[in-house]
UniProtKB/TrEMBL annotation:
Protein name: Polyunsaturated fatty acid lipoxygenase ALOX15
Organism: Bos taurus (Bovine)
KW Cell membrane (keyword) present: no
Lipoxygenase domain boundaries: 115-667
Keyword entries, A-Z: Calcium, Cytoplasm, Dioxygenase, Iron, Lipid droplet, Lipid metabolism, Lipid-binding, Metal-binding, Oxidoreductase
EC annotation from Swiss-Prot or TrEMBL: 1.13.11.12
Entry binding sites for Fe cation: H364, H369, H544, I667
UniProt-listed Pfam families: Lipoxygenase, PLAT
Cofactor detail note: Binds 1 Fe cation per subunit.
Domain PLAT: 1-115
Keyword flag Oxidoreductase: yes
Family statement: Belongs to the lipoxygenase family.
Catalytic class of the enzyme: oxidoreductase
Quaternary structure and interacting proteins, as annotated: Interacts with PEBP1; in response to IL13/interleukin-13, prevents the interaction of PEBP1 with RAF1 to activate the ERK signaling cascade.
């Protein structure tokens, strides 16, 4: 029995043993009192009336007792970790379970050796695979939440979810207690319901006093600095947009005269473009999006472009120029570091607002939640419990369906946080996702390919790249070892019908059958399978951590990442002042609403499983267990390197430190 709160049962458990020569009747596992308490391992001796031959399956049945026992949590549920069966002849057989039985029901378990479909020769085992998948497909169904989005789990609320995909009692309780405490504090301070403007920059510090972190303090102190503005494109919340620029876009007419004060003598814009020292961040997807109404006031948005310069040697990356629209002209000036302080700060703040919108809608919601949900749902529907890929991937789907169902219920639904407190609202979030789905490609999900495609292999102090490549390499090596154990050849990959159905469903339901995505709909080689599975695990763990865990750190000081803007972008220079800057920022209540949400979404509410931690022992053979141990050792080495480097940084980059990466998208 599992060890968490509420996993034991008063119900009666019995088993039947299915062998090569038949099946036993139900054999009660019974003693006086409550046998199945949380935690212990319990032994029972059962005597079948006849020999059923070599054991193939164990059928576990749970039924209420004749006399009802007290039930603290409604329908009595039991979480079974595993059963060991020791027949009179031969060694013990382990049957991994790690599933809930709720109400009166049966569960069929297989011996723990991982098997691909072409390895199952007995008709009973073949039938069991088919029946298990059919039952799962009936339990976990697809639906279209919004047209043009990846399809998702067909459930309305977390109350409707199967216990096997729900938060544990401990995790759920901690989640709501943390949210409630932050909500109560800001309400008591009179901020949560205040619809007006902030009175001063200093007053904004009251938002994060309830949960200060060293990173929040650093951001508050350095947010106006050009070097920190540029640093965030490398190591902030959204480190996936910056790309090397060899040719300026025609709609971004930066001149030598504009950038000479930063570039210095002896060089030119063209020379630096050819040298590869200029980088571009373009928010063109925001062009023309509709904006929201907050507190009765229309909000505003821009689609800015930012040009950055990597100083020679290991000098810092710095901004060169900002244009706040995709259409140059007299009403869309190019802002420069040499401009008036408030003009330049306001331009940078508009960029940071665009960063908020693109990050939350695309990098976070679409790529780090909706896409991993596709992986999780396809895994449950297409891979049986005994499949080596199910055993490998199921820890990386833990709680993903719960947090995404909760997001559709409480975060992105009409009238919820995104809709009431961000500058775009859910309508334009949806529009952005639909636009990005037409562009999203396989290489963007594979970190080494993405780094090459953006031309950022050698930019210094890019910790997201450095740490991410180390973690990707460790995952890839682990996956390669595991695939090598179970797939002896490319032909064995092609012949695995369940694997091919899994890949095909990800392509059709997640990427809507779009060939231009580059996502494979079939896999023909071990090399292709290794890359695909590495991509799935990395995006369900490390990528999510990199773009989610720092949300509160970078956004608690709201001017660094404003969720909305209340005045139009400037159309000329020389007009900006502190008063206008404050009037442009989001109102007090919207600021608090978003910061509370980001506080909740940044921190795992207990019941954690860091990357490479597999307490549920799905694999019973020695070879995969050795690979798991080697993977854990490699992650420990990476962690030591990251922590050693972070000791010397004014602002550490912890978001890809393996002990801080969750195995799955669970918050």
């Amino acid at each position: 029995t599992g060890e968490a709160f509420g996993v034991g049962t008063w119900d009666k458990i019995s088993v039947s043993i299915v062998g090569t020569r038949g099946e036993t009747p139900l054999l009660p596992l019974d003693r006086l009192g409550k046998e199945f308490n949380a935690g212990p391992e319990e032994d029972f001796e059962v005597t079948p009336p006849e020999d059923v031959g070599r054991v193939l399956l164990v059928r576990v049945h749970k039924a209420p007792p004749a006399i009802s026992a007290p039930r603290a949590l409604g329908r009595d549920a039991w979480f079974c970790r595993w059963l060991h069966v020791t027949p009179p002849r031969g060694g013990a057989l382990c049957f991994p379970c790690y599933q809930w039985l709720e109400g009166e029901r049966s569960l069929v378990l297989r011996e723990g050796t991982a098997k691909i479909s072409w390895e199952d020769h007995h008709p009973t085992l073949q039938q069991q695979r088919r029946e298990e998948l059919q039952a799962r497909r009936e339990t976990y169904r697809w639906k279209t939440y919004i047209p043009g989005w990846p399809r998702c789990l067909d459930e309305e609320t977390v109350k409707d979810l199967n216990l096997n995909i729900k938060y544990s009692v401990a995790k759920n309780t901690t989640f709501y207690l943390r949210g409630g405490s932050a909500l109560a504090e800001l309400k008591l301070k009179g901020l949560l319901d205040r619809k007006g403007l902030w009175k001063s920059l200093k007053e904004m510090r009251r938002v994060f006093n309830f949960r200060k972190t060293p990173a929040v303090e650093y951001v508050c102190e350095h947010w106006q600095e050009d070097a920190f503005f540029a640093y965030q494109f490398l190591n902030g919340l959204n480190p996936v947009l910056i790309r090397r620029c060899h040719h300026l876009p025609k709609n971004f007419p930066v001149t030598d005269a504009m950038v000479a004060p930063v570039l210095g003598p002896g060089t030119s814009l063209q020379a630096e473009l050819e040298k590869g020292s200029l980088f571009l961040v373009d928010y063109d997807l925001l062009a023309g999006v509709r904006t929201n109404v907050i507190n009765g006031r229309p909000q505003f948005s821009t689609a800015p472009m930012t040009l950055l310069y990597q100083r020679p040697g290991r000098g810092p990356l710095v901004p060169l120029a900002i244009q706040l629209s995709q259409t140059p002209g007299p009403n869309s000036p190019i802002f420069l570091p040499s401009d008036d302080k408030w003009d330049w700060l306001l331009a940078k703040t508009w960029v940071r607002n665009a960063e908020f919108s693109i990050h939350e809608a695309l990098t976070h919601l679409l790529q780090a939640h909706l896409v991993p949900e596709v992986f999780a749902l396809a895994t449950l529907r297409q891979l049986p419990h005994c499949h080596p890929l199910f055993k490998l991937l199921i820890p990386h789907t833990r709680y993903t369906l719960h947090i995404n169902t909760l997001a559709r219920e409480r975060l992105i639904a009409p009238g919820q946080v995104v809709d009431r407190s961000t500058g775009l609202g859910i309508g334009s979030f949806s529009e952005l996702i639909q636009k990005n789905m037409k562009q999203l490609n396989y290489s963007a999900l594979c970190l080494p390919d993405d780094i090459r495609a953006r031309g950022v292999e050698d930019i210094p102090d890019y910790y997201y790249r450095d740490d991410g490549m180390q973690v990707w390499g460790a995952v890839e090596r682990f996956v390669s070892e595991m695939i090598g154990i179970y797939y002896p050849s490319d032909e064995s990959v092609r012949d695995d019908s369940e694997l091919q159905a899994w890949v095909r469903e990800i392509f059709s339901e997640g990427f809507l059958g779009r060939e231009s995505s580059g996502l494979p709909s079939t896999l023909g080689t071990r090399e292709a399978l290794i890359q695909f599975v590495t991509m799935v695990i990395f995006n369900c763990s490390a990528k999510h951590s990199a773009v989610s865990a720092g949300q509160f750190d970078f956004a608690a000081w709201m001017p660094n990442l404003p969720p909305s803007m209340q005045l139009p972008p400037p159309t000329s220079k020389g007009q900006a002042r502190l008063e206008g800057f404050l009037a442009t920022l989001p109102p007090v209540n919207a600021t608090c609403d978003v910061v509370i949400a980001l506080w909740l979404l940044s921190k795992e509410p207990g019941d954690r499983r860091p990357l490479g931690t597999y307490p549920d022992e799905y694999f019973t053979e020695e070879a995969p267990r050795r690979s798991i141990a080697a993977f854990q050792s490699r992650l420990a080495e990476i962690s030591r390197d990251i922590q050693e480097r972070n000791h010397s940084l004014a602002l550490p980059y912890p978001y890809l430190d393996p002990p801080l990466i969750e195995n799955s998208v669970s918050i």
